[in-house]
Amino acid sequence: MGRIAAIEFAREGANLAICTSAKMKELNVVADELRALGAKVVAEKCDVADPAAVSAFVGKARGALGSIDVAINNAVYRAEDDFLETSDEKWQRNIDVNLTGPRNICRAVLPGMVERQWGRIVNFSGIAPFLGVGVAKAMAKLGIVGLTRGVAREFAAHNITANCIGPGTFDVERDAFQRDKSSIRPGQPIRRHGKPMECASLMLYLASENAGFITGQCYLVNGGMYFQ
Description:
7 helices; Rossmann fold; 4-stranded parallel beta sheet
């Protein structure tokens, strides 16, 4: 989903700073795709749970690309064990990546946005907190919604918006096992999985000038699995 969104942003004329905690080979392939579209690209290994690593990554992005106008937080750690079987280490890593990670990115990019009096932040939650699916996952992803709304209120006066996207089940390589229609939840009105472009297009809109009156919202892109 990140790859598709990055390509669409590049097609719109954006330069991009992209990162991964481990999959540099895959990230560099995406970076080459973006450069072929004419974008300037910074591609780095960065654990978003590490404030020092985030500061270094954002600093390098600023040095190479100039201002950071849009920040999209879609790094994820999947904590899917049953509650009583979730180790302390997995519980903490879940918080560090899924909740502290967006906080670290926001803290790194917001000062520049305030200085320029313009910015867009798009965070990623999910369907878990609204369905109560997985205690650790639901806890962290609902926390992201709270983080988003707090940032939205505090920085609105600076022409900065913060919104959240909560995807349902999408047809992506990571979740290939879910492509079987039997994995679609009973009662979901749209009887298929989402397509990455259906989420990427929302990212593009929320990052645009046209979305300047929208902030603090959580958009559930889930085929009607849950109505908010």
